[in-house]
Amino acid sequence: MKHAHGRTVLVTGATGFVGGALVPALLARGERVRATARRGAAARDGGVEWVEADLARPADLPRALEGVDAAYFLVHGMASGHDDYAEEERRAAAAFSRAADVAGVERIVYLGGVAPRGRPSRHLASRLAVGEVLRSGRVPCLELRASMIVGAGSASWQVVRDLALRLPAMLLPAWAESRTSPVAIEDVVRALAAALDVPLAGSACYDLPGGDVLAIREILEHVAALRGRALPAVRAPLPIPRVSTLWLKLVSDADWRVVRELVLGLSHDLLPRDGRYWTIAGLPPPLGFDEAARRALAGDRRPGGLRGAVTAVEEAIVARYAPRLRDGRGSREPGRRPAAPPGPAVPPRGR
């Protein structure tokens, strides 16, 4: 690929959580960034060339991809409300790959989801299928797979934060014991930016583990402890994830359609196969969960919006009532993680 200062990079999904964090990182590297928006592109700037394009309309793609050296595919239809969003995603990915080939794009970078240790939910199956479609195209595709991304603005983080702060005690549905390896948005952005320069003879796929492997229950306990409260556990498991999503609808402000899809994906462990991408890309080890969560909490507290105002009120409530909710042992010390068993947390496996 061309030297960084002579490279044009397209970011689809640039108005989303990950894309919005990636664009300034690419600009800081000296890339020329083109970004897509389904509407209102003409009103945007920020040193970016904005193009109005809907990836579901193949006719929009040639103009967006013209003169592009590398392209990020960061769109998904989980929150669209369409029952057939999985098929729409696959069609959009196939059309994007074909148009990228015609435009002479040298590589596609795709952010997908970690493959579960059992049958995937509809959402995860769609994420994996999109990766397969892109990797089977004529343009080499580097697929990076993450499980929970920790950062202010992430839907999965918002659910975790709301549960850890708002619950007086924690019910334990079966999926609360599912294990995952949350990764900080800062590390995801570094991984995506570095993907432009990772040697790529053909399409490839790597997982993006965070610094810790934790059960969902432990994640909630850690977040609660970082906010100075305990989260007593009540062992009254809800039978299946589909039922507990109705309960979550009452607790979290996150888009319930997204919450439902995310929780249905927690029936099995979401563990990365290995962490070799960090070495291949020349990146430092990823942040541990506590540090990632601290940064996300700090992002939630930033003034200038409803989220910041709500957070301030919630913090006052926690400070007033949290001591009454302690279970006699006090809060877990922030930063302390459960003792790891001997050997690697996630046994390396071949790809």
Explain briefly what this protein structure is:
The chain has 351 residues and is an alpha/beta fold. The chain has helices at 17-28, 61-65, 85-103, 122-135, 155-166, 185-194, 216-226, 241-251, 256-264, 276-280, 289-301, 306-321, and strands spanning 8-11, 32-37, 49-52, 70-73, 107-113, 141-146, 149-150, 170-171, 179-180, 183-184, 204-207, 214-215, 233-234.
Task: State the main characteristics.
two-stranded parallel sheet, NAD(P)-bd_dom_sf, 13 strands, NAD(P)-bd_dom, NADH-binding protein, ComplexI_NDUFA9_subunit, 351 residues, alpha/beta, 7-stranded parallel sheet, 12 helices, disordered C terminus
Q: What is the topology?
A:
Blueprint: E1 8-11, H1 17-28, E2 32-37, E3 49-52, H2 61-65, E4 70-73, H3 85-103, E5 107-113, H4 122-135, E6 141-146, E7 149-150, H5 155-166, E8 170-171, E9 179-180, E10 183-184, H6 185-194, E11 204-207, E12 214-215, H7 216-226, E13 233-234, H8 241-251, H9 256-264, H10 276-280, H11 289-301, H12 306-321
Parallel strand pairs: 1-2, 1-4, 2-3, 4-5, 5-6, 6-11, 7-10, 8-13
Antiparallel strand pairs: 9-12
Helix pairs in contact: 1-6, 3-4, 5-7, 7-11, 8-9
Helix content: 25-40%
- Which CATH-level-2 architecture of the domain at 4-156 and 182-207? 3-Layer(aba) Sandwich
How many strands in all?
A: 13
Q: Largest sheet at a glance?
A: 7 strands, parallel
Please give the CATH class of the domain at 4-156 and 182-207.
Alpha Beta
CATH-defined fold name of the domain at 4-156 and 182-207: Rossmann fold
Low-confidence stretches: 303-351
Spatial sequence of strands, sheet with the most strands: 3-2-1-4-5-6-11
Fourth CATH level, the homologous superfamily of the domain at 4-156 and 182-207: NAD(P)-binding Rossmann-like Domain
First and last CA, distance: 26 Å
State mean pLDDT (0 to 100 scale). Answer: 80
Biased composition (Basic and acidic residues): 324-336
Protein name: NADH-binding protein
Domain NAD(P)-binding: 13-114
Biased composition (Pro residues): 339-351
